[in-house]
Amino acid sequence: MINIQTYSNDVIELLKKLISTESFSRQEDKAADLMESFLKGKGLPVHRKGNNVWVWSGEKNADKPTILLNSHLDTVKPSSKWTYPPFKPTSEGDTLFGLGSNDAGGPLVSLLATFLLLSETEQPYNLVYAATAEEEISGKNGIAMILDELGPVDLGIVGEPTQMQMAVAEKGLLVLDCEAKGKAGHAARNEGVNAIYQALPDIEWFKNFQFPEVSELFGPVKMTVTQVQAGSQHNVVPDSCKFVVDVRLNEKYSNQQAADIIQRKVDCKVTPRSVRLNSSYIPLEHPVVRKGLKLGRTYYGSPTTSDQALMSFTTLKMGPGDSARSHTADEYIKIGEIEEGIKIYFELLNGLIL
Fold this sequence. Notes:
Blueprint: H1 5-19, H2 29-41, E1 46-49, E2 52-56, E3 66-72, E4 90-92, E5 95-97, H3 101-118, E6 126-132, H4 143-150, E7 155-158, E8 166-170, E9 172-181, E10 185-186, H5 195-208, E11 222-230, E12 236-237, E13 240-249, H6 255-265, E14 269-272, E15 280-281, H7 287-294, E16 299-302, E17 315-317, E18 332-334, H8 335-349
Parallel strand pairs: 3-6, 3-7, 7-17, 8-16
Antiparallel strand pairs: 1-2, 2-6, 4-5, 5-18, 8-15, 9-13, 9-14, 10-12, 11-13
Helix pairs in contact: 1-3, 3-8
């Protein structure tokens, strides 16, 4: 039986310091300093690149698989609706209020305590813990910046508030800028080619088309036209009609696959803003999922995007806290949730054979 208190008190105090430190996306340097100092205080050799901090458990063994424990340091900005001071950790009984306490401070420090506990005994895998930046904006200077430094990873545990249930899949996000071309002319005369009319069949196609592969977790791919822009004045036939499409991918398609299918089906020019934020899926037969089920954990598909989208290897999203509290006023985490999170993480990963 593990002694959760061995590290939980330490990491909860660290979480309070993190709450007290502004760490908006691209401004996580002071939070990264805190994390680096904490790890060095444990006598660990710390690596840092930008505002990303990571540490290995012992020497890396090329003959073992690698497990990454990862969560993020950055937060969104607080709304004006807060009644508690967002940068002052406020405890009321078992509840700790503060910006970033739930998303993703609770998972961040729970994974850290788990890393320290797992490091006490030899594991059948290499273990690395990474506290990273820019998750809230899917930035290029977050986890994506250090993946090459980490080398091959066989399994990633992504710490996000899931009530310690297993998010075995995550929707991908693809935003498309589309443009239908026409020819300008005077609206009073029968001249020109109206780009709005050129766009209408494609807009109708986005409304009605169904991708053939349907997910048991997410259902079909969902496409929504969300913005339309055309015309300069009332009497000029527009020569361009631009519109934006929000595409939410199930785990059956990569972003690039979906973009290629779409461009073949429509006449307008389609330009993806990015193909980085892909869907993810871990099979239910995977050892970590099977072990989670034995521990009484349930599984589901997550509609929200995380750093999973930037990882090409197998990942499982899981952590203490509740996604419904994320980005809300008076965000909080319960101390009991953190302690339970450490316990379940440890039971899930201790001695795990990949």
